[in-house]
Every structure is written in C-alpha cells, then in structure tokens.
Amino acid sequence: MKVPLLDLRAQFETIKDDVLPALMEVVEAQRFIMGDQVRELEQRVAAVSNARFGIACASGTDALLLSLMTLNLQAGDEVVTTPFTFFATAGAIHNAGGTPVFVDIDPATFNFDLEQVAAAITPRTRAIVPVHIFGQMVDMEGVMALAAQHGLVVIEDAAQAIGARRKIDGTWRLAGELGTTGAFSFFPSKNLGGWGDGGMIVTQDEALAERLRKLRTHGGAKQYHHDEIGINSRLDTIQAAVLLRKLVRLEKWSAARRERAGHYTAAFGDVDDVTSPVTDPANEHIYHQYTIRVPRRDELKQHLLDRGIGCAVYYPKALHLQPCFAALGYGEGAFPESERACREVLSLPVYPELSREQQDVVVETIGEFYR
Ligand SMILES: Cc1ncc(COP(=O)(O)O)c(C=O)c1O
Hints:
Layout: H1 8-29, H2 36-48, E1 53-57, H3 60-69, E2 78-81, H4 88-95, E3 99-102, H5 114-120, E4 125-128, H6 140-150, E5 153-157, E6 165-168, E7 171-174, E8 181-185, E9 199-203, H7 206-215, H8 237-247, H9 250-268, E10 283-284, E11 290-293, H10 297-306, H11 336-344, E12 345-348, H12 356-370
Parallel strand pairs: 2-3, 2-4, 4-5, 5-8
Antiparallel strand pairs: 1-9, 6-7, 6-10, 8-9, 11-12
C-alpha cells in the first residue's frame, strides 16, 4: 500500500464541489487582484487568531518580510531567532536589512530555548522572531515578557501554526495573537493551503495594519502616491476564494491531525528506537508535521521510500551552517541541539485523509526496520 507524505488530491476530492463554484465566481467577476474575497479572508483569518486586523500578501515569506520592514532596520541591527526552521525566517531578516542572531532549540519541542534568547539580547537587538515549529506554539508568555523588558518587537513566524493555541493563565491564546505581528503561510502543503502561494499578517495594532497595507502595495495608500518604498505583495482573489472554503474545515482537519498523531505516539510506545514528538502540556498542537527522532535516520528514510511510504527531513541543515550565512561566523557545534535534530528527525504522513490502515502500514514498516 502506498502512503504519500501528503495527499492533496484526496483532500481535493472532499472539497471540490464546494471550492470549484467559489473559484468560478471569481473567474466570472474577473476581479483577480484584491477582490472582495481577499478582504473577507483577512477578517476571517484575523478572527481565527484572535487578532483585530489581517493583511493578506503573496506568501508567508512576504508576511515576515513586510513585518520586518516596519522596523526600518539599520546595518548591524539584530533579530533573534532559531536556526532550526525553514530558510524564509532568516532570509526575511536579512532581506529587511537586519542580522539574524541564532539561538539553540529545546530538544523536546524543537522550538527555540527561551533562556538562550534572553542571553542573546544585546543593545543592537531590535526584535525576536519565535517560530512555532511543526505547529506547536513557542512559550509566548515568556517571549512577550522578555520583549517588554527590553523594548523589542515580536514577529511570530506562525507559517506552520494557524489555529495552534496555548493556555496562558487559564486562557487559550492563539498563534499570531500576542506578537506585534504574526505571519501565516498558505503554501499548498500547509494546514490551510491555497492553490498557489499566499500569506497573511495579523496584528492588534491599527496603525501598524495601515502601514502594512501600504507596504504591500509599493508604499502607497493612494494610487500613484508613495509615502515610502514598499513591495508588490498581494494575495490573488482566486487564492482567497479557495482559502475561504477551506478555512471553514480547518478546525476539523487540525483535530483529525491530532487524532492521527495520538495514534502514532501510542503505537511507537512499543518501538524503543523511535522518539515521538513531545507536546508542551500548555499547548494544543496542530501537527503541521509529526516529526520523530530516530537512530540511523537516513537508512530508515530510504527503507520507507523504497516501500512507497512518504517521509521527509525537515530540516537537514540548520541555518547557521548554510553557506549564505557563513559571514555570520557560526561554525559546526555552535548549536548542538539544532544540529542533532537535523541528524535525527523524520516527518511522517499525518494529514486528515490518512486512513488508519495506511497509518498502521507506516508503523509496521518502521517497526520492521528496527526489529
Ligand atoms: C517556518 C516557516 N516560515 C516561513 C515560511 C515561508 O512561507 P511561504 O512558503 O509561504 O513563503 C514557511 C513555509 O514554507 C515556514 O515553514
């Protein structure tokens, strides 16, 4: 039995009767840029992150870049983040004019270690970018306290975490709710994925929302009038129409992912070599990825691929070791937990359409490898 890492065609079968007519409405109206659906999506995504404003843009990368552009970073300004993330997190910091400063991760959650964040703050630090990696939130109460203490901006990289939440002082707080801004990605493989690229910034700050709206259209609120230099980063109406129809299913899909994750974790209790992912008890995980740690990871990966089971390594190389960041001066061994994670992690199929039968094949094939 083949088990793909993600089966978007299976998802399409369940939503096409709903999404295709919505798509045709856009085609009929011929309003492809910033149509009404974009504004509606902005409101809906703001609502699912308990934020007041949503600003749609062309990608998750741009959601980070635009957020960082509001800081007017000067050469030498530092932004603290994790090296165990997708490249965009640090690439956006550089492209906004800042210097990424990396800190190591907590081996249990894969999220950055708050004590190391505190230790990395210098007089040049302007912002912190917590990344809610794989769909589990960072300790945001800790991040916000640190930011308040040092007068820093917090830009949540929530690209993998739409709808993830964390109980803080007895209240559920959502990914994107507490930071100065939160950045979401609608890349097709995301929990809420479009049919192409897309992204969204959320914020509680009205003035900031207004500035972000300008920055995404070349820095002008009025056509042909430019207050500052922005970029072109809009969300297509077609994407908004698709995303609106998918958003109503997101909670159910995230619950299905959690159920599948729970089944794996129970099943891997019998396989000594497999370390299941750990959820901080304060968090509700949305399992964008279900990521195990294993010895002989590359051999296991090949064993699974040879048997038609999809799996992937997120991420094989930490960002501080990427050639493009060599000038930052970090070497091998600078962040041992991030580097160890890069050697040990393997992400398994965890999508809502994954059947129990398929999941049992994944578990059995991994068990067989280690027996
Ligand atoms: C953690 C993280 N940050 C940023 C991004 C960038 O998002 P996009 O691919 O939509 O530009 C992604 C997704 O690819 C991501 O996983």
